[in-house]
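Researcher: Quick test of sequence recovery. Tokens follow.
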């Protein structure tokens, strides 16, 4: 799932309005960032199915970045590190950030084939395989993007730049997500690893810049 992760993070800004949306979005994409790190270390990787040109999706071995139990742990660690950004309610910030990290497992569990491990590579794996119905899955993500943006727009202190800038960002990220439907040539592992690392930074860095004045107004 692509834009769906950012959509859930924007929606979560209603629960933690003093936390910059960029930090929330990075939390939602943390699993993919970790996949890049572990991929660079050679312990996680993507696999190209024989029917990629018609299925348009990869399969993965990623027990350390996308497992159920490990994401609970990564979420608590990430929340503990970054909850300081909300000086008035750090406990709320911790749990919102931790929940966003873990939400990656829930959302990916909807779209991946059964490959997300519960605990370790040899444990039971889950996945509802909505990617086998990709137009429906991408439409669902688009609806999520609209809902997340509308929830973000309702936050107090937003500026014209933050509201419309975030809208443009979500439209572009939605369009990028839809390109998956037209993929016929699979990327290589050497191409994927930098993308897994850099994309979460970019996808969170732009919203962080757009949201900075709103957060400053809320925390002043």
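Model:
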């Amino acid at each position: 799932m692509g834009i769906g992760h950012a959509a859930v993070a924007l929606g979560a800004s209603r629960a933690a309005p003093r936390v910059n949306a960029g930090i929330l979005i990075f939390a939602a994409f943390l699993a993919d960032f970790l996949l890049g790190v572990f991929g660079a270390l050679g312990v996680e990787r993507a696999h190209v199915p024989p029917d990629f040109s018609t299925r348009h999706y990869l399969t993965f071995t990623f027990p350390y970045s996308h497992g159920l139990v490990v994401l609970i742990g990564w979420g608590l660690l990430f929340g503990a590190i970054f909850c300081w950004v909300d000086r008035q309610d750090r406990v709320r910030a911790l749990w919102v950030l931790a929940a966003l990290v873990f939400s990656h497992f829930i959302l990916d569990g909807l779209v991946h084939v059964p490959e997300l491990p519960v605990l370790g590579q040899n444990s039971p794996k889950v996945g509802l395989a909505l990617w086998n119905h990709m137009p429906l899955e991408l439409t669902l993500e688009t609806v999520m993007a609209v809902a997340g943006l509308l929830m973000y727009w309702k936050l107090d202190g937003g500026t014209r730049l933050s509201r419309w800038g975030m809208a443009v960002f979500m439209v572009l990220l939605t369009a990028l997500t839809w390109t998956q439907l037209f993929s016929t040539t699979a990327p290589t592992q050497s191409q994927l690893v930098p993308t897994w690392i850099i994309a979460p930074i970019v996808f969170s860095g732009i919203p962080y810049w757009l949201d900075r004045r709103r957060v400053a107004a809320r925390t002043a």
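The helical segments are 3-12, 21-40, 52-55, 68-82, 90-111, 134-153, 160-178, 189-219.
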